[in-house]
Amino acid sequence: MGGTASTLRALGSPAPAARTRRVVQVGAVAFGAPRPVVIAGPCAVETREQTCSLAREVLAAGADMLRGGAFKPRTSPYDFQGLGEEGLRILQEAREETGLPVVTEVLDVRQVDLVSRYADMLQIGSRSMQNFPLLREVGRQPLPVLLKRGMAATLHEWLCAAEYVASGGNTRIVLCERGVRTGWTAEYDRNTLDLNVVEAVRRAVDLPIIVDPSHGTGRAHLVPSASLAGIAAGADGLIIEVIGLKTRRADVLCDAEQGIRPDMLARVVRAVGQVRAAREEIEAARASGAEDA
Amino acid sequence: MGGTASTLRALGSPAPAARTRRVVQVGAVAFGAPRPVVIAGPCAVETREQTCSLAREVLAAGADMLRGGAFKPRTSPYDFQGLGEEGLRILQEAREETGLPVVTEVLDVRQVDLVSRYADMLQIGSRSMQNFPLLREVGRQPLPVLLKRGMAATLHEWLCAAEYVASGGNTRIVLCERGVRTGWTAEYDRNTLDLNVVEAVRRAVDLPIIVDPSHGTGRAHLVPSASLAGIAAGADGLIIEVIGLKTRRADVLCDAEQGIRPDMLARVVRAVGQVRAAREEIEAARASGAEDA
Amino acid sequence: MGGTASTLRALGSPAPAARTRRVVQVGAVAFGAPRPVVIAGPCAVETREQTCSLAREVLAAGADMLRGGAFKPRTSPYDFQGLGEEGLRILQEAREETGLPVVTEVLDVRQVDLVSRYADMLQIGSRSMQNFPLLREVGRQPLPVLLKRGMAATLHEWLCAAEYVASGGNTRIVLCERGVRTGWTAEYDRNTLDLNVVEAVRRAVDLPIIVDPSHGTGRAHLVPSASLAGIAAGADGLIIEVIGLKTRRADVLCDAEQGIRPDMLARVVRAVGQVRAAREEIEAARASGAEDA
Amino acid sequence: MGGTASTLRALGSPAPAARTRRVVQVGAVAFGAPRPVVIAGPCAVETREQTCSLAREVLAAGADMLRGGAFKPRTSPYDFQGLGEEGLRILQEAREETGLPVVTEVLDVRQVDLVSRYADMLQIGSRSMQNFPLLREVGRQPLPVLLKRGMAATLHEWLCAAEYVASGGNTRIVLCERGVRTGWTAEYDRNTLDLNVVEAVRRAVDLPIIVDPSHGTGRAHLVPSASLAGIAAGADGLIIEVIGLKTRRADVLCDAEQGIRPDMLARVVRAVGQVRAAREEIEAARASGAEDA
Fold this sequence. Notes:
Four copies of one chain form a homotetramer. In chain A, 34% of the residues lie in helices and 13% in strands. The first copy, chain A, is an alpha/beta fold. Chain A has a single domain, classed as Aldolase class I (TIM Barrel, Alpha-Beta Barrel). In chain A, strand 3 (37-41), helix 1 and strand 4 form a beta-alpha-beta unit. In chain A, helix 1 runs parallel beside helix 8 and helix 4 (132-139) packs across helix 5 (155-166).
């Protein structure tokens, strides 16, 4: 990273075999431990009833954490922008009911304090990956940060964004791949999920990395395969958008095309555990340095 | 596909639950059956000794078929262009020794007959995906065809390329995703492996689809994870470049950066079987139509 | 734009021939009038001497406005971040000396007031194109806004960003194309300047649009041709980075590769006027509706 | 180019000031001379009447050469594939009537001889840029070659394709930029015309380079601006698709969206001459080496 001192481990420096991975703890949930973490929940917090019942459904399906947007970054100013602080209060209730720690997005430097009072982990969205004042601000507070990759960001730019956070003193950072923009794949998806970057991140820094198969595909019917592929590629977890059992897809206010149902989430959680076990062959080879012959 | 009659099943027409998948048989090897097919071998056929010993090594590692280029499409006219017919004879010997069926690239319409005399399956490379005379020519002969995706091809263009082959009467086609060109990921890979397309292909046509993690990453240390991710994403198999146990990487004439070693291939073959098993959760949901609620 | 009420004219609505173009005035400078506007100056304000002497040089070369960054969005937190308010004071002095109105970037919602006290026009950089709180904030103050396109932004996203500004009441917006990220052109440039978008913007909205050939190429030797091409493509102006006559390229703290010299700027200004005149053939056809037959 | 001997001048070798540019002559038409060459005609040769009347119209509008496809590379096998040899005969007649030299595409190695008997210049299309047997074949015959860039080709790959032609002995090569695939610009165009590459080519090799604003935009209303921008960017000419005065757009069999009318072509030809003159400021600076300070 430009030859300057870096808080995080610089790209490519240590030998793979020597690597220890940093574990980022959010309550009882551990990112970077062998067991994959599954974060699930609605795209946006719409109502108390929708959020709390969905929180119970994803808990039953095996999820470890709850996601949900109270402040939503929307392409158009005329789209639903989220419930704001009311949404944060609903997320807090859902946590109290289910015990699931909550991650939610902060997109305005002036709201970092507010969001921090309600959340267990702060999400920096793709559009904010190079919002440098915001990165500095979340770097100065103690909650862990979920840092999504920008939609055409290089690995260098992404890791430098993590450096902005870390340089403020907060190294509790989890990276999240969410698809890059290729454009010519629009017949079947909204973004191209870049799973090559998962291994590349693991070789570059010791931060945990998770995958967002919901934005990484933009289509509910592609999410299960993308989830399994993400874990197979070496990710430490997933963040998945879910639509409640009784919710009509047409009524969802935000990204209705990409939410899966709780029963499919349960299948994904089970399958993901087996996929992670299948990776042991590869992890063992890596630990012994065998892969680099 | 433009509203005209199509030999293959058109994009999006039948309901997912109703789908049967076409099995393409190459000798005893079945593409599109539950068990994933692993094709392995050198990038280019360089010598008899290199090819035959490597064929034995990949057989021991659990590969089902042998790959190897006799006619190589190289960016520069001054790079090694392959051994030509001599390379085909070496591949034939390797098959006789190991029993592995052989897939090799044909890139000139005038050589379809020649290559067909030696190969069990004809590969159409990425650069030839829209070489329409060549597609027509391989569509008029009986050997199965491995059709790689072009490096910035849309799904529609790729399936239309398959239609060129099918319209000649040959529907024994296996598709192969091998990475698309995004460019800004060059810090860590050569192409972006697009695994979203695997599910999209399975929904569009009944042809088998495999993944090329070697060109799809361009870096040996990314190949194992990409292989597992490919199968997790729903692919019917893999095509992997391998460097012989005793070969020095620096001596390889073509794509030296991306070949894995036979011992790593053996690990991948084992892991891939377990990953495929983990997919049963998802396949079962698909069969029941549950995923589309 | 999503069927909702829009302050700006929606994409594609009126017939081309009927179009009037909005003129955005910054002091005596008019964006959207027949004469192209040339904004020039350093990438970053580094010292008083550098900025003021360069301001005189670009004035002599024929520039209409002065650019220069006081707050710089830098990929790494360890790179030079700009002089901040001291930089704004220097820009103010340069304006007093030369009479050139000043455009400078604001990247933190908390600094909109501060920057507004010194600048004549506020720039929203590429990385901030979807910083929605910042867009709203500059939409609530009276200075005109230069809105750069994000590096992989669709036209829809860009125009929606303009809507965020306009919905606050400020419709004095000038759009700026500055290159999109393709990646595989890195041999010769840093971004691909997308000049097709200039006509597309002119057909979609009545806002002026200018081109940034400096970031749009990233290479000084490509800037003159890109400048002429931008005006030939229909742009209302250019924003060009310049390095002072006596400055050594190696001493420049930011984007040293892309600044042109004042004598080249003078040539560009002269050529640009002639190129604009050559467009009259096309403008006349458009006015008569002849192009759409 | 890989350290090996090269027939063409290698990337970046000679100092810009010292450069002479190669002139490629096609009858009386000179590519690489100061005056820009305009090639115009139908996308595909459909009928004798359509082609001959259009040839007269583009001659009247000021075009220097006639284009038109007899063998068409079409995405789907069920689309119109061109008239074949009958189309070549029609092009020959159009040339006899108008005196315009003819360029037409060859896409099958087995048809190089046939096409050569009728054409004055052979076009290698984008999809064939890495059809290496075809490149070698056109390199062994004497007609000049128009070599289009592949839709995601790097400059290196494109120049290596030219090397394939040159290594056969034929260095009468004209390069043609026709847009690259970005995908996310599909709201307003079919490809992103990459005009940065024009200067990059001029610095890398001494071959002439022209621009295809028809495929480079895919929309007739974007073609005039793209034409002027191409010449402003330093191109030696244009290749433009035209629809006859009396032809209904809906009746055109191929790429109906992108053809301009002969009266617009006449305006473009006039404007292009003035734009070229405006470049003298820049050419003079280049000749003196001033641009690289």
